[in-house]
Amino acid sequence: MKITALETLRTKEFSNVLWVRVHTDEGTVGLGETFYGAGAVEAHIHDTLAHRLLGKDPLRIEALNRVMTDLPMAQSSTGVEYRAASAIDIALWDLFGKVCGQPVHQMLGGLTTDRLRVYNTCAGYGYVRSNNIRPVDTWNIGSDEGPYEDLAAFMTDAGALAESLLESGITAMKIWPFDPPAQENRGLFISAEQMRKAIEPFEKIRKRVGDSMEIMVEFHSLWNLPTAMKIARALEPYEPTWYEDPIRMNSSQALAEYAAATDVWVCASETLGTRFPYKDMLDHDATHVVMVDLCWTGGLTEGRKIAALADTYHRPFAPHDCTGPVGFAAAVHASFSQPNTLIQESVRAFYTGWYRELVTAVPTIRDGHVLPMEGPGLGVELLPAVFERPDLVHRKSEL
Ligand SMILES: [Mg+2]
């Protein structure tokens, strides 16, 4: 079998999402995806990777992963080179599953459990839909697409939101009410008034539903270390489950200092690319939960190594979502195949909303748990309507 074409697709509406389809001489096609900088990733795939991959055996996944990342400018990052390699790697695993007639989680070693707990990342329908990736600006609150405008909800009525999630069996939620003051003060300091306001959602949740809801706190790497530590201490009475990316994830020493200053777990980080920066974080006792985005860190090939690395350090694994629908499916396959998966991220405004405009299947979520994907490969394809969209940007490099 050999790779005969690399095809990329992106749309103006969902401008962060890039899909890759890997075509073969036997007619089987693998589907992969990445998120952010879709145009730049597309260019890298066609300008640099195509001539390295066309004509190669797509089932030599490890070897091709090395071919894609063995570039002088692709050094342990979630940059364009790694996002491109991730999308193609995911497509190769999809292809492998299709060739063998098995789901990707089986190809990765099989199910470790029959269902996995999810938490709801409280984004709304329009969150990160536009190209601008600065925080707060991309919240796009106010869409009336459906009942799950959860970002507006956590900012205004977090207690009712927690109750609504519990009604559907979801017992963990992630929120980021500290982003507005971080953006306002460039992450340098937080006033007493800002602190009070950002803590309000935590008060409302605990008051309304007690400790039946777990709360993960996302900080999006917006704070300096002393302010992040001040916020960490202020939130401790509300017993959050984890603090995610409180500072820039480029100093294991600084994050270790943070981790030592609070009783709450630290989660790091989907912004890390490849297992090497994770090892550095683990070596320095800087993180408790290992979060990975397979669409950024090097695909399923690298993601499963990071999960194994976390397990070697007795740390749980927690795959990221809040990006695109194929990446979500890939994350669910990875989650089920890894014995140290703690919980899977999910966004109900996405999996009940725009994901369904684009793909044939989304993972089933029932009673706060996700079920394994069915069918060979990832079990998800782009809908025919995607190929007909007037805003589609389509490129193909052929053998
Ligand atoms: Mg995050």
List keywords for this structure.
single chain, alpha/beta, Enolase-like, domain 1, TIM Barrel, 2 domains, ten-stranded mixed β-sheet, four-stranded antiparallel β-sheet, 16 helices, 17% strand, globular, binds magnesium ion
Explain this structure.
This protein is of the alpha/beta class. The chain has two domains: 3-102 and 382-398, 2-Layer Sandwich (Enolase-like, domain 1); 106-370, TIM Barrel, CATH 3.20.20. The protein is 42% helix and 17% strand. It has 16 helices and 14 strands. Strands 4, 5, 6, 7, 8, 9, 10, 11, 12 and 13 form a ten-stranded mixed β-sheet that branches. A four-stranded antiparallel β-sheet has the order 3-2-1-14. A hairpin with a 2-residue loop joins β12 and β13 (369-370). The two termini are 13 Å apart. Magnesium ion (MG) is lined by residues 218, 244-245, 270.
Low-confidence spans: none
CATH architecture of the largest domain: Alpha-Beta Barrel
Distance between the termini: 13 Å
Helix-strand makeup class: alpha/beta
Helical segment count:
16
Give the SSE order as H and E letters: EEEHHHHEHHEHHEHEHEHEHHEHEHEEHE
How much helix, percentage-wise, in residues?
40-55%
Determine and state the CATH class of the largest domain.
Alpha Beta
| CATH fold category name of the largest domain | TIM Barrel
Q: What portion of the residues fall into strands of 2 or more residues?
A: 15-25%
Q: Name the bound molecules.
A: magnesium ion
